[in-house]
Structure formats: structure tokens, C-alpha cells
Amino acid sequence: MGDVIVAEDLEKRFGDFVAVNRVTFSVREGEVFGFLGPNGAGKTTTMRMIQCVSPKTSGRLEVFGMDVNTHPADIKCLIGVVPQETNLDPDFSVHENLMVYSRYFDIPPRTALETIGSLLDFVQLSERRDTSIEKLSGGMKRRLILARALINNPRLLILDEPTVGLDPQARHLIWDRLRALRSRGNTIVLTTHYMEEAAQLCDRIVIMDQGRILELGRPQDLVQKHAGVDIVEADNKPEVLACLGRMGAKYDVAGERVQVFTEKAREVTAALLQECSPIEVVARPAGLEDVFLKLTGRRLKE
User: In the prediction, which pLDDT does 228 show?
Assistant: First the structure.
């Protein structure tokens, strides 16, 4: 399988501000590729360059072998986009939103009708085809936007925070639809703030901060590299830190808690309880959120 997206030293500037700082990555055909990072990390700006709606400042960015600055129309015919905001037309029904959107791709009306029927079945909105947009729930609107993004049978699907604000049931339904698309061979690129979403869906991820890529790889590999197998959490007290120092354990201070990255959770837990009791100690498996916070920091970025 070849590369659908290739970026080398990709840069985006707004005046003196560098939003994307010489990033390099590639997206393989048929994979789900995720962008993670705090607000302002450069994720959405990168996605907008891939979508050909924001020109790159410098570097190389090709989609299906075509430069985004010189072949935007050709690229747009091959992609579908699920934006972060809900931008359905409130004056039209569910079916009418899809029919109007199909005209942007010059899809013949008869073909559009057949495609829309299949897509409404796919996102479980067939019974809502004549419903006005204002009467849809948030989850229904996100599913309709996904159907809209698929109207032109795209080879590449780009999703910016596809499940933002959804309840768990709606989120899992979107995940199920995305897995079905991947099984059909679609290439999917997404941004998300949900670590579980990235771990569940993505074959590979990049973690970005301040316009740079900090890490790239498979979620499970990044967890193993930066957080290990298990994490032991305890109260941030002098006696706890002293005990960890004697054990030679690696730890991070996270406010009122101390986190120990270890492959020997039982031994660390037993030692802390024996030497520092009474304290609260919790052992749990390491996860992608631990990697994210370790690489990008815990300070709120806005």
C-alpha cells in the first residue's frame, strides 16, 4: 500500500506566528491516522492544509501524489470532510441537506438518490429523512455530517473532532461506522481530544504541541515507550518521595499526586503501603492519556 498523504518540513505561518513548524509525516492507504494535541497545537491547521482550504507556507504536502497548492480541485474531489462545527443547513430536511450537497460534486440526481438512501441506512437515519435539522439530536447531526462527507464516495475521509460533545452511546455508534469504513479500505485522518477514541480507532497517531510533532507511532508502542506497563499513584508527601527515592523509582509529580511508571506495580504498592502508611495508593494500567500529559505537560493551554 502506498502513501495517501506525504508531508515533509511542512510549515504554516500567519505573519510572524508559526502555527505548524516543519512537520514531517505520512499517512498510508487504508489506515486510521490520528492527530492529538492540546488546543493551539496545530492539528486543525494541518488538517485545513490537507483539505486544501489553507495554503501551506513552505515544505512539501502531497495528497494522492498531488501538491495541495497546485491541485486543490482534484484533491477535493477525492476527499470527504467532517468539520468540528455542526454546519448543516437548517432550512432543509435531512434528505434535502444531502441532495443539495451532492450537486457540488455533479452527481446525477438518480445516482444521488440511491447513494443517499444507502448512506442514511449506514448512519441509521433512514427514519429521519424528512425531519428538519433543528429537531435532530446532537448525535444525529454528527451522523448526518458523516453521511454528507461520504456523498462523493471519497478515498480519504478527514474528521476534525468527530464525536465532540456526544454522549457515550452516540460516540460508540460513530466509532462503529468508522470501523466499518476502514474495513472497506477507506483511509481516515482524524483529530480528537478523547484518548480512548484514539486508542480504539487509530493505527498510528502523532502527538503535536506548539506546532511541532513530539511523537509518532502506534498507540500501544507510545504507551510502552513513555509510560510503561502500569502506573502507581500515591499522595504527594515527603515520606512518599523519600521512599520512591530509596527504591530508585521513576516518578512524576502531578499536583497533589505522585505517579510512578513501573513494570512492578505490586512491589511498588506494597513498599509504599508498608513504609508510608496511612496513604492512598492506586495501581492501574498505563494509557495514552498518561503519554499525552507526559509529553505536552499538565498546564492548561488556551
Answer: 84
Q: What is the pLDDT of residue 243?
A: 87
Q: Radius of gyration (Cα) for the chain, nearest Å?
A: 23
Residue 1 pLDDT: 62
Q: Does domain 228-286 have CATH number 3.30.420.40?
A: no
d(CA 240, CA 113): 66
Give the mean pLDDT of the chain.
Answer: 93
3-223 placed in CATH 3.40.50.300: yes
Cell of 196: 480512548
Q: State pTM to two decimals.
A: 0.90
E strand spans, the chain: 3-14, 17-28, 32-36, 58-63, 66-67, 79-82, 156-160, 187-191, 204-209, 212-217, 230-235, 251-254, 257-262, 281-285
pLDDT of residue 247: 85
Residue 139 CA: distances (Å) to CA of 59, 102, 145 = 38, 22, 10
**CA angle, 78 as apex, 49 and 113 as ends, to 5°?**
130
297 DSSP 8-state letter? -
Residue bearing cell 502500569: 230
Question: Are 233 and 211 spatial neighbours (Cβ–Cβ below 8 Å)?
Answer: no
Q: Identify the pLDDT of residue 301.
A: 57
Q: What's residue 152's pLDDT?
A: 96
Pick the closest to residue 47 from 87, 16, 8, 82 (CA basis): 82
Which stretches of the chain score pLDDT less than 50? none
How many other C-beta atoms lie within 10 A of the C-beta of residue 101?
20
The answer to whether the CB of 256 falls within 8 A of the CB of 282 is no
Let me know: does 49 contact 56? Beta carbons within 8 Å. yes
CB 117, CB 96: distance < 8 Å: no
Q: What residue ranges do the domains of the chain occupy?
A: 3-223, 228-286
C-alpha cell at 52: 486544501
